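Run log // design_07
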């Protein structure tokens, strides 16, 4: 879903030529959502409750990322949204929600056809390649989505057709002429007053060209009051609050109808009953959130998609596409008689030199390269911890290295490593006490419990940055505790003092166990490594719930693994100065490399 692409609005002159189409059928009735059985773990969207006598289970937690536009392969911006969504999905699974985490690719439009032609491929071949590059990156980043929808999927086309018919039946589609200046890169008509010199598009810095088209329009203006009501009745519909204010401002300034078809674009879904036009990419792509829930090869319909997983609990998007999700999409759904989503969260931009990183500007950061050098946990942790979720943030490699080294290698990794080392040396790698008994009367346990509750609240509020901070606070507390108690010297004293030292090790290891669970939405592989070093199996890790953060799982007699670094510190090495490049200055340029990622 390209930020630059937007619906173009009907100008006031449209009235002269507009002819509202007359339809006999009454407006659509709201579609009912079928109940779902609650199942732990990965998506089970195809489970039907119709033959089940048990009481209806709560609806699924449906979470979406934007469907990314396949004009180019993914970059760190696309990865950022998807990492955040994966962290939310993992947290919701820990709460035992039946999660349907949807992502995918938006594959129609003129820009795709042009990119395909430039690479000497037909559009479908081009889409296959680029869409696959998204899937591969998501695997590299430990993203566990449940549904990946491509808008060229036949089941999606069926849903779009049904949806178009419903909106048509509501009397909200009409035909009109439009003439204006068009930016092909944005795939939208522009208002002359927003253009620069020589009618240049402000995003693409290229002149817009005059175009005249006969298009179909959606009557957005009819939904002005309903959208106002939506924001009043659900103040959490748009988050964070500064984005809500933006949306309120747009609505207040008056909503204009927008075009939902293109006469000049062949690479798209044909408009029902008018094959000379194709449906405009946004009126097509947003429906992917519905068609995603359908199984491949089944008889696809809009009703079926609604029954499988609607309304969405959360659309996680960048702020560039807020207007489409917070205004156009709910209005379109209202017109089709379908429930609106529960919430839309518009996060900020990753920037480079203050400019939005994006495919069109080509100033992107390569996530594959970062993952290859530093591993998925480091990338996931850095962007969620250091870019305040909801605001913009700039990337710097120096900050990246300093952050992950300090937090993951030192605060968490070293604490586990030295505690297991002490346990091996003094207790034969076996716990001498139950963690409950070890912490009896110790306020440290209460402090950890309070912080875990705080972290849970942050995850629930989508304050992912604060969630990371709070879990790290637990790690800091653990480091402080072990430094103060100095078990290494207490063991030497023997007797009760050594016994207390053995208890302290149990306390720290129980704390590490809790940290592993609480950080697992952000750093799943790192958390698994911690868990297995504590003597648990991978299967036990995979069935954890948030409630398992409760103090007390470690028992006397449990054997721990030998200490092994769970996160390799990233080392910077000074490269030989390139003789031909005097600009680098004395000492050459620094190149960072992980010592090697640690296998689970
Ligand atoms: N710089 C960025 N920071 C954060 N998120 C981004 C960034 N760039 C893209 N995204 C994510 O991708 C979505 C837009 O997807 P799209 O495929 O259109 O990528 P794009 O790089 O913005 O494209 P273009 O530059 O052509 O407009 C955003 O809403 C956001 O979720
Ligand atoms: Zn443009």
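design_07 sequence
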């Amino acid at each position: 879903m390209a930020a630059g692409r937007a619906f173009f609005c009907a100008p006031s002159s449209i009235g002269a030529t507009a002819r509202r189409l007359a339809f006999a059928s009454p407006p659509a009735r709201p579609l009912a959502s079928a109940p779902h059985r609650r199942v732990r773990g990965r998506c089970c969207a195809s489970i039907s409750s119709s033959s089940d006598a048990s009481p209806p289970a709560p609806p699924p937690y449906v979470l979406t990322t934007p469907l990314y536009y396949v004009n180019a392969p993914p970059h760190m911006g696309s990865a950022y949204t998807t990492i955040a969504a994966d962290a939310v999905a993992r947290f919701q699974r820990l709460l035992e929600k039946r999660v349907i985490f949807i992502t995918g690719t938006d594959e129609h439009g003129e820009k795709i056809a042009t990119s395909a032609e430039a690479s000497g491929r037909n559009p479908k071949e081009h889409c296959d390649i680029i869409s696959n590059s998204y899937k591969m990156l998501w695997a590299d980043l430990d993203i566990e989505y449940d549904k990946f929808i491509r808008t060229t999927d036949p089941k999606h086309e069926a849903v779009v057709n049904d949806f178009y018919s419903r909106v048509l039946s509501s009397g909200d589609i009409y035909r009109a002429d439009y003439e204006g200046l068009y930016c092909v890169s944005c795939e939208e008509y522009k208002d002359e007053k927003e253009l620069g010199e020589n009618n240049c598009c402000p995003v693409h810095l290229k002149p817009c060209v005059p175009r005249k088209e006969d298009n179909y329009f959606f009557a957005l203006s009819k939904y002005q009051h309903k959208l106002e009501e939506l924001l009043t009745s659900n103040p959490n519909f748009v988050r964070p609050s500064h984005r809500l204010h933006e949306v309120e401002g747009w609505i207040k300034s008056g909503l204009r109808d927008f075009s939902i078809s293109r006469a000049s674009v062949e690479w798209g879904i044909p408009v029902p009953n008018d094959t000379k036009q194709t449906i405009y990419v946004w009126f097509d792509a947003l429906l992917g959130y519905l068609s995603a829930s359908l199984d491949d090869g089944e008889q696809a319909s809009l009703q079926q998609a609604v029954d499988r997983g609607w309304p969405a609990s959360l659309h996680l998007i960048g702020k560039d596409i807020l207007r489409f999700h917070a205004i156009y999409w709910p209005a379109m759904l209202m017109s089709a008689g379908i429930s609106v989503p529960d919430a839309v969260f518009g996060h900020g931009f990753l920037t480079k030199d203050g400019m939005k990183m994006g495919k069109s500007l080509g100033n992107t950061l390569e996530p594959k390269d970062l993952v290859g050098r530093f591993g998925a946990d480091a990338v996931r942790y850095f962007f969620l911890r250091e870019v305040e979720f909801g605001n913009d943030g700039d990337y710097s490699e120096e900050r990246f290295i300093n952050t992950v080294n300090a937090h993951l290698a030192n605060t968490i990794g070293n604490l586990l490593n030295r505690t297991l080392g002490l346990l091996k040396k003094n207790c034969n790698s076996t716990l001498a006490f139950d963690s409950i008994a070890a912490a009896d009367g110790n306020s440290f346990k209460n402090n950890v419990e309070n912080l875990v509750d705080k972290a849970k609240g942050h995850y629930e509020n989508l304050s992912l940055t604060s969630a990371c901070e709070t879990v790290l606070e637990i790690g800091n507390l653990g480091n402080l505790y072990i430094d103060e108690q100095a078990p290494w010297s207490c063991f030497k004293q023997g007797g009760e003092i050594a016994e207390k030292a053995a208890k302290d090790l149990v306390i720290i290891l129980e704390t590490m166990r809790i940290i592993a669970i609480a950080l697992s939405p952000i750093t799943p592989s790192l958390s698994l490594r911690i868990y297995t070093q504590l003597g648990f199996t991978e299967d036990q890790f995979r069935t954890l719930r948030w409630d398992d953060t409760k103090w007390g799982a470690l028992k006397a007699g449990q054997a721990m693994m030998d200490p092994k670094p769970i996160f390799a510190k990233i080392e910077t090495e000074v490269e030989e100065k390139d003789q031909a490049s005097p600009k680098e200055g004395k000492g050459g340029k620094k190149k960072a490399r992980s010592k090697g990622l640690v296998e689970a």
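Residues 6-51, 575-589 have pLDDT under 50 and may be disordered.
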